[in-house]
């Protein structure tokens, strides 16, 4: 990576964008933060669509002008050649498994109920919300069993797997999840939040 500025297009309450800020902080990389204030207009804008073909955030614009989208791809790019993402193909695949699972199972089950609550469509989506919450609980049970045996998802060290997966778990009470029955998950979240580079979704106060 060259020393030029990185530019992150983001929404302040988005967990997917929070992941990228956390990874940038882990790397100690400076970046320009472009917070989108008018998402409906910006996401439909042709210039923005050239950066993000689906009209979503996060988008990270690299020093050479290349725009990266999909949080997992951006995280992988940022973590290259760091202990967050092993070079060894097998250990790397173990980390990637958690990134794929996060996108396919964990994030929809935990992020959508939060989204319905935030935008006031919880009642209109009541049935879907219940099904997602049940699926979310199953994901948390799976994580809790896993984390009762080891400190981090890929063993004794923090990796991109933990960075990517902990975000929507931490936000899940906003979507109605109760983390009380999952002590190993809560201990994992505390370990992660104690990291020097970790920062909350929003600044305190
Ligand atoms: N799988 C994508 C999901 C991106 C995504 O859904 N972003 C949301 C914010 S968290 C967004 O931009 N939504 C606007 C929209 O879909 O119109 C990723 O991980 O980057």
UniProtKB/TrEMBL annotation:
SUPFAM superfamilies listed in its UniProt record: GST C-terminal domain-like (SSF47616), Thioredoxin-like (SSF52833)
Alphabetic keyword roster: Transferase
Any one Gene Ontology molecular-function term assigned to this protein's record: transferase activity
UniProt cross-references to InterPro entries, sorted A to Z: Glutathione-S-Trfase_C-like, Glutathione-S-Trfase_C_sf, Glutathione_S-Trfase, Glutathione_S-Trfase_N, GST_C, Thioredoxin-like_sf
Pfam families from the UniProt entry: GST_C, GST_N_2
Entry annotated with the keyword Transit peptide: no
Protein name, entry field: Glutathione S-transferase family protein
Organism: Komagataeibacter rhaeticus
Organism placement in taxonomy: Bacteria, Pseudomonadati, Pseudomonadota, Alphaproteobacteria, Acetobacterales
């Amino acid at each position: 990576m060259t020393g030029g500025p990185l530019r992150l297009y983001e929404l302040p309450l988005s967990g997917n964008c929070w992941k990228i800020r956390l990874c940038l902080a882990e790397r100690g990389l400076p970046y320009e933060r472009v917070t989108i204030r008018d998402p409906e207009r910006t996401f439909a804008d042709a210039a923005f669509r050239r950066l993000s073909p689906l009209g979503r955030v996060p988008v990270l614009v690299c020093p050479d002008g290349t725009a990266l989208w999909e949080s997992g791809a951006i995280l992988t790019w940022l973590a290259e050649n760091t202990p967050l993402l092993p070079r060894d193909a097998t250990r790397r695949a173990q980390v990637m498994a958690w990134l794929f699972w996060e996108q396919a199972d964990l994030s929809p089950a935990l992020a959508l109920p939060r989204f319905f609550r935030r935008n006031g469509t919880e009642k209109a989506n009541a049935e879907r919300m219940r099904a997602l919450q049940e699926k979310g609980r199953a994901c948390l049970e799976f994580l809790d069993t896993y984390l009762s045996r080891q400190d981090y998802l890929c063993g004794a060290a923090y990796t991109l797997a933990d960075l990517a997966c902990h975000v929507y778990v931490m936000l899940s009470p906003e979507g109605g999840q109760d983390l009380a029955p999952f002590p190993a998950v809560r201990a994992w979240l505390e370990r992660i939040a104690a990291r020097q580079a970790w920062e909350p979704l929003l600044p305190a106060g």
